[in-house]
C-alpha cells in the first residue's frame, strides 16, 4: 500500500476545542490544513465526548429525576436511559464537529495515531496505511487522560474505572467509591448519589475544596452530605482487593466496598507516543509541552494548545488558546496568555459552585484591605428565583477592595451560578466597581439580581 503524502500550511494533532477551531478558521480562509485525530470516537475533543458535555448531561438529568417516594431512590432504569440519551447527544455533536472540518475543501481529516518524524513532519498510522504529513506550522492539541497510580490492586481490576469508563457504564453501581475529592470526583459522587448509588469519596487531604474559603467549603460539604455523599478526609488509600478499598486515616485502618471504584486522582497530558524528542520539542516531567505566552514551543513553528500545555484544563481556556495562536498565524501577534484576567471555574454539584478571582483568604494574604459580603441564598429575600426552581440552598460571597471598590473575587454556591459568575468575571476584567454592579438594573426574577442585595451587604 502506497504511503500517502500531504503538505499543509497548518497541521493540527488532536480534535479538541483549540485545535479544531483554529483548523476551521484557517481552512475557511483558504489555508491548506490537515487535522489528525487518533479515534473516530473523539471527533470534537474531550469536552464533547468524555468531558463537559456528557457529565453535565447526566448531572442535568439527575437534577430532574422524579423520586419514587420518601426514602426510595429513583428506578435504576432511569439512569440507564440517561446514559443512552447522553450517548445520542455526544454522537450528534461528534458528527457535527467532523462535518465542520470535512466540509471545507482545503481541510483533510486523518484518523490515526500521529508521531513526529522531525520538526516539520508527522507520520500518521491510519486504517488505510501510513500517511506522511509535512506542515509549515504544527499545533499539538492531544489533551489529557486520567491518571491511574500504582496502588496495589488498581491495575487489572475490572471494578476499577476512570471517568471515561463510567460515563458509558449502563448499569447503575449500587456502591460507588471515588478515589479523590477534586472536581471530577465530587461531580461524579454527587451525580451518582442522585441516581440512587451509595457514594463514598476518599480524599487524602484534611478537607475537600481546600482552595476555597472555609465558609464556602463548609457550605459545599454540607450540601454534598445532604445529597447522600459520604466524604472521608485524610484517607490514604493503601490497596484495592477486588471490590474492597483499603485505606488509613491517621494510622487507623479501614475499608469500604464498591461495585465500581472510580479513580479521580488527576489527569496528565497525552504526549508519550508523539515522539516529541524527534521534533526537538521540550516537555516537563509530567509530559506537558513547554510553551511561551504565545503558546509557541521552543520550536517557533510548533504550538501547543489546551490541556497538553500544562495550563488550566478548561475547554474555554483552550478556546482562548485558539485566539492566541490565530493572532500569531494570521493577526497582529500581540495577543498572549498574559491577557487573561479573572478566569472563572465551576464545580457542577447541585447547586453548582462557581468562583472567580481571589478568595477572602488570598486577598488578605496579598495585603488588601477588604470588604466582604456572604449571605445564605435562603435568606436573600429579594432573590425569589432560587425558591421558584426549588433550589434555595447554598450561599453567595463576594470580596471587594475597601480602598478602590474593585471586586477582587466571588464564590457563588447557588442555582445558575455557572451563568451568573460570568457577570462577576466581566466586572473584574473591565474594572466595574462593586457599587456600580450593586446599582445595576437586572431582570426579575433572576439570580443575577442577587447582586443588588449581596453587594449592599458589604462590610
Automatic annotation (TrEMBL):
Cofactor binding note from Swiss-Prot or TrEMBL: Binds 1 FAD per subunit.
Cysteine disulfide links: 47-52
FAD/NAD(P)-binding domain span: 9-318
One Pfam match: Pyr_redox_dim
Required cofactor names: FAD
GO molecular function, one term: oxidoreductase activity, acting on a sulfur group of donors, NAD(P) as acceptor
PANTHER family: MERCURIC REDUCTASE (PTHR43014), PYRIDINE NUCLEOTIDE-DISULFIDE OXIDOREDUCTASE RCLA-RELATED (PTHR43014:SF4)
Protein name: Pyridine nucleotide-disulfide oxidoreductase
Amino acid at each position: 500500500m502506497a504511503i500517502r503524502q500531504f503538505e499543509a500550511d497548518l497541521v493540527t494533532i488532536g480534535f479538541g476545542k483549540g485545535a479544531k477551531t483554529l483548523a476551521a478558521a484557517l481552512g475557511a480562509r483558504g489555508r491548506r490544513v490537515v487535522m489528525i485525530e487518533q479515534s473516530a470516537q473523539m471527533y470534537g475533543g474531550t469536552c464533547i465526548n468524555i468531558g463537559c458535555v456528557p457529565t453535565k448531561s447526566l448531572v442535568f438529568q439527575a437534577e430532574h429525576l422524579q423520586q419514587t417516594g420518601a426514602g426510595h431512590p429513583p428506578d435504576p432504569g432511569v439512569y440507564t436511559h440517561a446514559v443512552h440519551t447522553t450517548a445520542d447527544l455526544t454522537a450528534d455533536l461528534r458528527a457535527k464537529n467532523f462535518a465542520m472540518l470535512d466540509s471545507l475543501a482545503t481541510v483533510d481529516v486523518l484518523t490515526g495515531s500521529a508521531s513526529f518524524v522531525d520538526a516539520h513532519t508527522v507520520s500518521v498510522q491510519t486504517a488505510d496505511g501510513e500517511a506522511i504529513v509535512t506542515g509549515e506550522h504544527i499545533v499539538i492539541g492531544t489533551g489529557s487522560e486520567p491518571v491511574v497510580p500504582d496502588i496495589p490492586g488498581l491495575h487489572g481490576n475490572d471494578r476499577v474505572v476512570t471517568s471515561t469508563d463510567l460515563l458509558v457504564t449502563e448499569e447503575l453501581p449500587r456502591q460507588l467509591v471515588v478515589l479523590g475529592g477534586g472536581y471530577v470526583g465530587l461531580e461524579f459522587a454527587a451525580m451518582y448519589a442522585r441516581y440512587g448509588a451509595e457514594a463514598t469519596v476518599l480524599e487524602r487531604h484534611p478537607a475537600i475544596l481546600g482552595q476555597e474559603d472555609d465558609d464556602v467549603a463548609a457550605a459545599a460539604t454540607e450540601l454534598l452530605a445532604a445529597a447522600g455523599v459520604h466524604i472521608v478526609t485524610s484517607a490514604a488509600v493503601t490497596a484495592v482487593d477486588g471490590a474492597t478499598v483499603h485505606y488509613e486515616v491517621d494510622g487507623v485502618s479501614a475499608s469500604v466496598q464498591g461495585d465500581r471504584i472510580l479513580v479521580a486522582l488527576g489527569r496528565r497530558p497525552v504526549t508519550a507516543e508523539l515522539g516529541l524528542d524527534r521534533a526537538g520539542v521540550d516537555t516537563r516531567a509530567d509530559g506537558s509541552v513547554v510553551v511561551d505566552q504565545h503558546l509557541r514551543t521552543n520550536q517557533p513553528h510548533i504550538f501547543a494548545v489546551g490541556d497538553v500545555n500544562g495550563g488550566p484544563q478548561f475547554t474555554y481556556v483552550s478556546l482562548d488558546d485558539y485566539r492566541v495562536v490565530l493572532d500569531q498565524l494570521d493577526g497582529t501577534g500581540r495577543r498572549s496568555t498574559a491577557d487573561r484576567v479573572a478566569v472563572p471555574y465551576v464545580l457542577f454539584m447541585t447547586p453548582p459552585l462557581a468562583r472567580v478571582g481571589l478568595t477572602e483568604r488570598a486577598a488578605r494574604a496579598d495585603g488588601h484591605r477588604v470588604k466582604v459580603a456572604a449571605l445564605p441564598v435562603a435568606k436573600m429575600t429579594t432573590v425569589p428565583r432560587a425558591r421558584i426552581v426549588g433550589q434555595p440552598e447554598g450561599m453567595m460571597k463576594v470580596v471587594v477592595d475597601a480602598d478602590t471598590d474593585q471586586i477582587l473575587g466571588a464564590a457563588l454556591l447557588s442555582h445558575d451560578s455557572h451563568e451568573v459568575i460570568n457577570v462577576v468575571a466581566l466586572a473584574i476584567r473591565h474594572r466595574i466597581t462593586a457599587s456600580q454592579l450593586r446599582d445595576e438594573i437586572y431582570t426579575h426574577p433572576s439570580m443575577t439580581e442577587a447582586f443588588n442585595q449581596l453587594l449592599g451587604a458589604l462590610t
